[in-house]
Amino acid sequence: MRGLIVAYFDAVAAKNFVGLDAVVTRDFQIYEDGKVWNNDSVYHNIQYHQPFSVKFTLTDFHVFADTHTGELSYHERADFVVQDTVRFTLNFLSTALCLRTKEGWKIRLIHVTAEKTPEVGMPRIYRRFDSVRYIPDHYQKRMEVFSKERARRGGIVMLGNSITEFGDWRRLFGDSGVVNRGIAGDNTFGMLDRLSDVIARRPAKLFVEAGINDIGQGVPSAMIAANIGSIVQYVRVKSPGTRVFVVSVLPTNDRAKEHYPEVAGKNESVRALDGRLREGAGNYGYVYIDLAVRVTDGSGNLDEQYAKADGLHLNEAGYTEFVKLLREKGYL
Fold it and tell me: Is the dihedral of CA 258, 259, 263, 265 positive or negative?
């Protein structure tokens, strides 16, 4: 049981949802100073407060157990480093309840009480990227449309931003059952927020296209890649039969300066993020689809033959090239 507690906080430090899920019961909760958390809310909270690292030191364990239940008390020290510069430490007095299940011992409940002193508190240093949306009204309207659609299991779901929303996927794939979950202006935080709709469908395949709006909002590439990794991990746990594909972020061309100045001139950031996404495929277990290499010209910009006049979005030839790539790779 002590090992379960250590494993849980190791998973928090590693931002590993699979690890969190593996050591707790289905109805697991955390009580913390009047707040009630479950694994989902813990994981979302981790993502909303990146970039940070934390090291947990767990000491002074006291354990009482019988054949079916176990109670633990322990001291928890959390050493945080935020944005590579700000350091602070929090201390907690904690208890936990463990249950013996068919799969072995699991954590059912953790109760956390922070040790507080008058002069020490949590610094207000987090930037809440998750609250930033380019087109909040459109986001809400799309969500209302999604909520009215019947959730059929299986098939293909396309999750993304405007590049996904503007694609006529049913025609392009020749599949009337494809579900379009693109929202123009959305970022990876918005996609994390609406994953429950995707998971309810238990799709056979999920294509994730995301990142350019985050770049336009100044979200660090490490955070964007971690959010996409979080999407994949969350889907793996909640819908293990779903195969997840992550599409590369596409560069823009000079015409974007007029129509989308917030993302224009940021192709180096796009390439840096794509490098992280390529590496992340091995860590998170998704298939990386390098569409960017197929639609980039010799100068590293979005090739005009595949782009709309706005310099950002794909035209019909661009979408056709994407489908061609998927068929070549055997993903359709």
Answer: negative
Task: Say which CATH architecture domain 2-116 belongs to.
Answer: Roll (3.10)
Separation between Cα atoms, residue 61 and residue 74, nearest integer Å: 4
* pLDDT tens-place string over residues 239-279: 999 999 999 999 999 999 999 999 999 999 999 999 999 99
Lookup: tokens for 315: 């035209």
Q: How far apart are CA 128 and CA 179, in angstroms?
A: 30
What pTM did the predictor assign? 0.74
| CB 24, CB 39: distance < 8 Å | yes
Q: What is the enclosing helix (H) or strand (E) of 288?
A: strand 287-289
How many whole angstroms separate alpha carbon 245 and alpha carbon 218?
A: 25
Q: In this structure, which CATH number among 3.30.1490.190, 2.40.70.10, 3.40.50.1110, 2.170.130.30 belongs to the domain 130-329? A: 3.40.50.1110
> Where in the chain do CATH 3.10.450.50 domains reside?
2-116
